[in-house]
Structures are given as structure tokens and as C-alpha cells.
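Entry:
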Amino acid sequence: MSQDQNNVRFSQLTVLLHWLIVLLFIGVYCSMEFRDIFERGTEGRELMKTAHYWFGLSILLLLLPRVLARFSQHTPPITPPQPHWQHKLAIAVHLAFYALMLVMPLMGWLLMSAEGKELSYFGLQLPALMGPDEVWAERLEELHEIGSKLGYALILIHVGAALFHHYLLKDNTIKRMMFK
């Protein structure tokens, strides 16, 4: 493959981390949306909640490699070039995603700590980030739910923009994030 063709896509590492995190986001949201198919206190519901924690913590764990891979490597240009305002909006949405990937898992961890619940990640016992506090647990739960709704909005904007670029503008936005 020529050097010019290498510059039209993100690196394989960036692409891999992007799509892995997409799968983890699907797991995060599905595990919470579908937990209600199980009654409270059942093993199935507990499994869904545990999966939610693991998916969220996995996103947090992959955030640093994702950011490092994304910003330490070549950013392929969009062709044809997009207007300046679209570029700035895309940057804002991506920064919001990075903030979401940092804040939501940490907020969930804080929530578990405030509820006095132990949190383990694939057998590794994680330390509490704060002591039990019922008032803070309620606040954190509300904030976590608001954050999840913001996450839905970001996903809708991101996917909608990608599809708009691909099908209406017919540029290479989606192709840049596909495997070679």
C-alpha cells in the first residue's frame, strides 16, 4: 500500500480501540436497559449490573490508550474537506465523548462506594473512592442517570453525523475509521 493510501485511514490501533469501545458502550447501555427483564434480587439482574460495571470500567481502562493512540498518530484528512464549523463541532463532540468515558465510570465507582457496596473488576477488589453516604449516593445516582442520557445524545449525534457524511456528503469520514 502506498504512503498516500496509508494516510487516508486512522492507524489500526486507533481503529481497533475505537470499535472495541463501541462494543463496550453497547454492553454498558444494554446491560442497564435490559436489567429490568429480571426481578430485583435475582441472579440475572445482579449479573446484568455486574456486567454494566465491568463494561464501564473497561471503557475507563481503555481511555488512556485510546487517547494516546488517537493523538500521537496521524489524523487522516476528510476528503473532500469539511467546513471549519463542522470540524470544530466534531472536535467538541469527540472531547465530550472522552469526558463521558472518564466521568461516567468514575461516577459509577463513586456511587458504588457511596452506597457502601464493594466493587470488583474481574476478581480484583477495587478500593472505595469514598465512605458510605446516602445523600451523596442519591446525588451521584441522579448525575449518573443524567450522564447516561447525555451519552445517548452524543451517540445519536456521532452516528448521525457519520451517516450524514457517508450518505449525503459522500466523503471519507467513515472509511477513515474502518479496518484496512
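Residues 50 and 171 are 40 Å apart (CA to CA).
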